[in-house]
Amino acid sequence: MTVIPMLRSVLFASVFWLGALGKPPKSAHPVVVAGPLMGQSLEIRNSDHSSLCNTGGSWQWTWGNPKIGVADILCLLDGLELAGWDKDENLVKHKPKVEVRPKGGFHQNGLEAIATIFGAPVLDGDSHLGPRLRAKGYVDEDSFVGHAYDWRLSVHDWEVSSFPVLRKLIEKATNSTGAPAVLTGISMAGPYLHAFLSWTRKHDPRWAARHIHAFIPVAAPFNGAVMALSAVVSSVLQTWSTDGECPRCDPPKVHPAIPGNSNLIEGMKGWLKGEAMNVADEVVKKIIWNWPSIYWMSTGLDYSTDPPTDPLVITMINGEVPPMCSMDKLSATKCGSTQTREGWRFDDPNYLTSTQCAECYKMNTLGTCAKGYDEAFNGWMRQLCCKKHQCNAKSYHASELPDLLTEIGREDSASMMKYALSVGTTTDPGVPVHCVFSHNVRTFSRLSFATSEDLDKARVTLDDGDQTVDANSAEVCTRWDSTVKVYRVPGVKHTGALDVEQVLDIIEAVATNDEQAWRGWREPAISDVRVTSNESLAAAGDLLISGMPTLSLFV
């Protein structure tokens, strides 16, 4: 008779224990982590039998796989390339018979796709976020949830594909734990989650109030990054460089243990020489110029200020040729030309400086050039008389970037940039925000080019930031009414933000309702920044570029 009540007690205790297994500590909140641009694993399925990259109908883990070899780079880039852009629907055009998805698919373990990338721990290193939360009682994919997505696409693509998945993940976590969730993530995860919150408001204005406790963006480019714009307009490889003028820099200090190569370009010169570097750049540009996310991550309009700020981001030093230099179509010249459009070369190739053009006319050699004109070419029968004019600089604000891309003949790019500007992430997201970012690291802040016809290499102006996100973009969240607190960490490079223990302290404190801890958080001195790991996502870029000489045989 006593056995049955005892069994009932054991059964009840087992059910209770199993039900509590997925719950975080009392009064705590589930944590949902979204992945960043490029920092989450993707897999490819290619059923095109005419392709060099047919996967036989099975999914192949390519981006993020630490065991991928140089021979696999071809398949990787074939999968990452998109077929184009539908400007009417604001959706990408996928390549026929090629599918790409987060590792494991949208409905599987999202942590698997973002915890480690090319062998570098993002969430699961010794002292990273995962081990910390598990030590507090969090359980993977229940109270500690990962969300991965195809980071190449547009906001509208995500509205169709991954935002509904994220909403269900959050609802499942909040229902399971009985508490609203904390949203966090590094880099583009911040704008991605901001766009997601905007999408939920369209469908249910009260959804976020029921399901979101706090939003903790880390190193988020809420108004894009000039570095991304450099990749869109000019050179992809240059975006890994920190070369440039820095008129306001007070030589910044960088924590010596923070991950990330300070100048990948210099490191690459040892094994990508001469033309191979140019080939590599062209191969990568061909691929990423079709990614809407890169345009979305370029600098846009800033609505966190009143009135909105339209930052000046690109200057063409010789952007406007005076009309006098092109009145005669045959003798017209460009800024810095060594000859006329017709092909008459100046006797002195340095006759014009890089910021000058010439108004020219031809006459026989027996004549004398008119007053104010120089003899620029003296031939057997004809001579060229020219007058120098100063070329004017032409500057482009963020709102004018579609115009610039149209002027250089990239219509799809202009359309993607126009759409990106329409779905910016600088407005107040309407949920409690704990904003975390680094500063005091040299970062792209403005670009200039000699002319719009010579965009191979930008002249870069550097300023404050985290080496990727400039301060103007990182500080957007400081101006939101919903921001509860701003946390600044000195000298931390962009990819290393989640390797810093003080950053993880913030996420843990907010998630576990340790209000005293997060309210008492103070900016550390650079010597006091505690680093959990020396590994970096830069390995992904190193691996990708290392395959370029091989790829040049195929593209």
Structural summary, described in words:
The chain is an alpha/beta fold and 555 residues long. The chain folds into 2 domains: 29-311 and 408-551, Alpha/Beta hydrolase fold, catalytic domain (Rossmann fold, 3-Layer(aba) Sandwich); 322-390, no CATH class. It is built from 19 helices and 20 strands. Helix 13 (401-407) packs antiparallel against helix 14 (411-422). The longest helix is centred in the first third of the chain and has 18 residues, at 3-20. The chain is elongated. It starts with a helix and ends with a helix. 46% of the residues are buried. The model is unreliable at 1-22, 259-272 and 534-555 (pLDDT under 50).
Number of strands: 20
Largest sheet: 6 strands, parallel
State the low-pLDDT regions, or none. Answer: 1-22, 259-272, 534-555
CATH topology of the largest domain, which one? Rossmann fold
Q: How many discrete structural domains?
A: 2
Radius of gyration: 28 Å
CATH architecture of the largest domain: 3-Layer(aba) Sandwich
As laid out across the biggest beta sheet, the strand order is 9-1-10-11-17-20
Percent in helix: 25-40%
Q: Strand share of the residues?
A: 15-25%
* CATH domain class of the largest domain: Alpha Beta
